[in-house]
Amino acid sequence: MTRTTPDPAVLPEVYVRRPVGMALIGLGAFFLTLGPLVRFYVADKVVVAPLNRYAVTRLEARNATYFDTSTLKTRSGATLLATNTLRGDVRANNGNENVAVWDSTTNIVDTANPDKPIQIQGYRMAFDRRTSELVNCCGVNVDGDNNVRMSGYGLLFPLGNVDKVDYPFFDMTTRQLAPMRYDGEDTVQGMTAYRFVQQIPNTRTSSLDVKIPGRMLGLGKDSPPQKVDRYTQATNTVWVDPRTGIPVRHRQNIYSTVQTPDGRGRMVVAQADLATIERDQQSLVDLADANALKITAVRGYLPFGALAAGLILLAVGGRLALTAAPGRPAAPPPPRRADGRFKTVPAAPKATAGATAATTATAATVAKPSAADAASGAAPPRGPGEQDPPRHPPAPPGSYAARHR
Asked: pTM for the whole thing?
């Protein structure tokens, strides 16, 4: 196996690329963890109804009929304006941040006499900020009645998750639960909305403290004043943004009467088809679009963007950290002797140019024997530095060495 050592020319690149690569790998792992965290944890914390909510919505009904209690006359062909004011009470939940408490007040007036309200309705509702389902706490009431038990949904649909199914909605007028049935799709101010319809059957809503003249109830001129109860039936239609669960348009077709306990006398006290005015529809659509962007960001853009960024950073960091820089073969190790130690080669002595030439000439002269020496068989002269071979001392007479020499 051949080892490689980095080229000194690329050492700075090696020392920079690997730490940067490891840092990118760590950052990529962080983003891969951040994606699911945002989608499954942060989104549930962000996609909630606000505690502090303030909104004013106006509904208008043309050619309406209502009973004027100040003049005891029925007015027809009137234009009614219902102004709903919604306020959030941030302290009413007693520190429970999972519950929002909203107060709603609706003031209905005849536009011909706006300073004189025809009817004022009010209620307080508390609901789960994530599911929008009503809860009974924090002083919920309808027109001051604290004995009302609310259930189902109130003003909002499930946040960010509206399906084409029926939802149970609590009607504040009749104080009963009735299904809000899916009825198709419509376009509201350029936005696709789901249409839901709720049918409220004729229901006794209150008992009036005043008595109504019998002639007004159709019982004849000589009939005495009668004690009556109020009954209401309605068709409520809501157009809701499926992305957020925010209603962007309302329509309330109301038919209200008073009648005697035996049912013989009856009189229409209100008949109106109220619908959200165009300007407020646009405001609600803008609000829904803004909330839809936030929901899409925490449920889609941010999680998937973090996952994509994490994968890219891991790929780039792995390439920088795990890919070796170009290198060159290392010098082979020195040879070893039989005992395992490295062989050492003595360094040749350095000599000057003149000395080297003289030494070379001398060596050539000494190394080459003369013709006379060759003919006589004499040993050639030894060069400088050469030594005679060691001589053996004479063996004693009669020894083994003397006999075999």
From this structure: 0.69
